[in-house]
Amino acid sequence: MSEKEGTGLDRLYATVAARRGGDPEQSYTARLYTKGSAKIAQKVGEEAVELAIAAALEDRDEIISESADLLYHLSVLWANADIDPADIYAKLEAREGQSGLAEKAARNNEGEKNNGV
């Protein structure tokens, strides 16, 4: 993929996915992979909280910065789980035109069916 192909998120994903198996002494991303899924998930949670705080404070620059951090860590999480951004795009596309309330209700009903309720 050339630098101009795909979205910024696609390019970010390609970069972090390429770091899997890399030298953890040379790459923060490779180091995250060696720490495993729980640590990667923890970092996603931390960045999400930092973004929420920036949003609550209405700090535009911090919202931008924390959004970038969250997207980076989310890309690492996806790559670690062998999930391509195209999988996420497909899920979003499937939800297009559907009311958010209806979509949430459908997910809640599925959860009840799967839990024997």
Shape: globular
Radius of gyration: 17 Å
CATH fold description of the largest domain:
Helix Hairpins
- CATH architecture name of the largest domain: Orthogonal Bundle
Binned, the helix content reads over 70%
On the 0 to 100 scale, the average pLDDT is 90
- State the separation between the terminal residues, measured CA to CA: 47 Å
CATH superfamily placement of the largest domain: MazG-like
Quick summary:
The chain is mainly α. The chain is built from 6 helices and no strands.
Describe this structure in words.
The chain has 117 residues and is mostly helical. The chain is built from six helices and no strands. It has helices at residues 8-18, 28-35, 37-56, 60-80, 85-95, 100-114. Helix 1 (8-18) crosses helix 4 (60-80) and helix 3 (37-56) packs antiparallel against helix 4 (60-80). 14% of the residues are buried. It catalyses: 1-(5-phospho-beta-D-ribosyl)-ATP + H2O = 1-(5-phospho-beta-D-ribosyl)-5'-AMP + diphosphate + H(+). This is Phosphoribosyl-ATP pyrophosphatase. It comes from Sneathiella sedimenti.
